[in-house]
Amino acid sequence: MPLTSTPDEPLPVRTISRALGDWISRLGRVWVEGQVTEISRRPGMNTVFLTLRDPVADVSLRVTCPRAVCDAVGPGLVDGARVVVWGKPSFHPGRGTLALAVVEIRPLGAGALLARLERLKATLAAEGLFAASRKRRLPFLPTAVGLITGRASAAERDVIENARRRWPAVRIELREVAVQGPLAVSQILDALSDLDADRAVEVIVIARGGGSLEDLLPFSDEALLRAVVAARTPVVSAIGHEQDTPLLDFVADVRASTPTDAAKRVVPDVSEQSALVEALRSRARRVLAHRLDLERRRLADLRARPVLAAPLREIDRREQTVGALRSRSLRCLTHAVDVAERDLVHAAARMRALSPAATLERGYALIQNADGAVIRSPAEIEAGDPLTVRVAGGTFAARAE
Where does the record say this protein resides? Predict the structure, then answer.
């Protein structure tokens, strides 16, 4: 039943506290999973106080439990341990605080953790977050390298020393964070966001040395994994040793087996690059020298050819050829004219020999009647017919007798 109140008739604090206690007590006992922090075992008290923190969100809940319940868990109940508790939420009106009264605590064993990680891995894989197609290539020579690692850790030393040994001019943007425990995920997320916003940082390395499954749990946190996927800058995962495989290895753009391997993957080796440049220069020099020698030989061959060794020699030869052709054509033309002239003389002689005038010149005469017809037989004329006689010197009239 909702409470009613007015400015003139306000409710006292005890009423509100009692109502809150009644509402919260209706929830009953529930199973809750979280990470243990701030364990307080006060001497002479049978109650142990601790804080149960959500491993993903920045949310915590105060927990009270009998000392016997904590002792039953054994030495595994330490800060950072993942547990499942069974308890009932309670509200203390006198202090106005909310707490979870726990009657059973179960450590979350490695098998259960691995099963949960496998389920999360399957979910992220189904979303395509592990796909090679979405992974970005690292820059060849980054201007600045972002490094997220533990404070004064061996991983920090390995990455920085190896990176600067390989490329002394590399600039490291270091962000020191907690790499295990309840604060690790939030600090890593803040450092990742800070470095990703810096345009000068071209690659980010998240590094940590080896550890137990529980120690490496922050690097399998779903919030961190999705932040790495959404980052603009390529991310290199360098967590633990070769055998350690947190889920960060699957979503990162590059997975390095160790922090030292991450330094080798992020920046090139100056000595190797110098040797490579020198080898390429030598190769280019050899190729260019070979090409020059080839072109030099070709030029020498061209210069040795007669047409280039003595350019006028060919002209002189051509001139002699033209002169010979002219003389030959002149001789041929003269011979042809002489032959044609002789043929013309012979033809004229034959024509003259066959001409009637030539016959008349030999003393013959041509007799024609009055009609001009040539008389070939005496029978063709009669006595007294007028005739015309043609001789070589001309014609005269005659009469048949």
Answer: Cytoplasm
Q: Two tokens at 89?
A: 């939420």
Report residue 262 as tokens.
Answer: 């991450």
3-state secondary structure of 45: coil
CATH number of the structural domain spanning residue 241: 3.40.50.261
DSSP codes joined into one string, 216-275 = TGGGG-HHHHHHHHH-SS-EEEEESSTT---THHHHSSEE-SSHHHHHHHHS--HHHHHH
Q: Can you list the pairs that 193-200 forms with residues at least 24 positions away whose Cβ atoms lie under 8 Å? A: 193/227, 195/146, 195/148, 195/233, 196/231, 196/232, 196/233, 198/144, 198/146, 198/173, 200/143, 200/144, 200/171, 200/173
pLDDT score for 33: 83
Q: What was the pLDDT predicted at 283?
A: 95
pLDDT at position 56, please?
63
What is the pLDDT at residue 355?
73
Of the residues 248, 267, 286, the one at which a domain ends: 267
pTM for this predicted structure: 0.54
DSSP H/E element including 158: helix 154-166
Same domain for 47 and 127, yes or no, is no
Q: Are 85 and 105 in contact (CB under 8 A)?
A: yes
Q: Indicate the number of domains in the chain.
A: 3
Cβ–Cβ < 8 Å for 63, 99: yes
> Residue 35 carries which side chain, given as an amino acid letter?
Q
For residues 197 and 224, membership in a common domain is answered with: yes
pLDDT, one tens digit per residue, over 356-369 is: 777 777 777 778 88
Judge whether 149 lies within some domain: yes
Q: What is the DSSP string of 120-147?
A: HHHHHHHTTTT-GGGPPPPPSS-SEEEE
Query: What's the Cα-to-Cα distance from 334 to each of 118, 245, 322, rounded to whole Å?
Result: 114, 109, 18
Q: Which two tokens stand for residue 337?
A: 């004219």
On whether residue 48 sits in a domain, the answer given is yes
pLDDT of residue 302: 83
Which residue numbers in the chain have pLDDT < 70?
1, 56-57, 76, 109-113, 242, 244
